[in-house]
């Protein structure tokens, strides 16, 4: 649940990575600016300074560490810098923190990790939301393994339209019930981690 307005800058040269992180942040109520390079990031910061900057490390031309040093030299800068990387070995994580990042998040990012990060770092912007417990009368769905695997893959890939299509298909075969209604609510609100 969002309190004060929260803005974020996402910098990643891979389109899919940008889209996944952007959707996750937007699902938490953040306003997101997305760019694909360090040069675009520096241009963006001339117009608006976000609360947080999510920087990919492995980018061509200007990597995340070089971009971080250039942003830190600016008179106005984001409150917090988050390193987004596929390399989350302890030695790498320590190196990134030593070089000026406030936090390191490994890829692939999960919604739960992102939500906890926002709560820990920006508690004045985000409030803890207790997970709703399903009604005792809601019985777990007995789904074929193939359907369950497709649901899980769609949730992990943050493919909301594919998820809704699968849930509609389940409804047609089992009828609408508390489980399918709950699944649709989670898909619409972007809480994919609770669907898996």
Protein architecture, described:
With about 200 residues, the protein is an alpha/beta fold. It is about 45% helix and about 15% strand. It is built from eight helices and five strands, in the order βαβαβαβαβαααα. The protein has a five-stranded parallel sheet with strand order 2-1-3-4-5, sandwiched between helices. The longest helix has 15 residues, at about 160-175. Residues about 130-140 have low confidence and may be disordered.
Topology:
Elements: E1 7-11, H1 15-27, E2 31-35, H2 38-47, E3 52-56, H3 64-72, E4 80-85, H4 90-98, E5 103-106, H5 111-121, H6 145-156, H7 160-174, H8 178-189
Parallel strand pairs: 1-2, 1-3, 3-4, 4-5
In short:
With 196 residues, the chain is of the alpha/beta class.
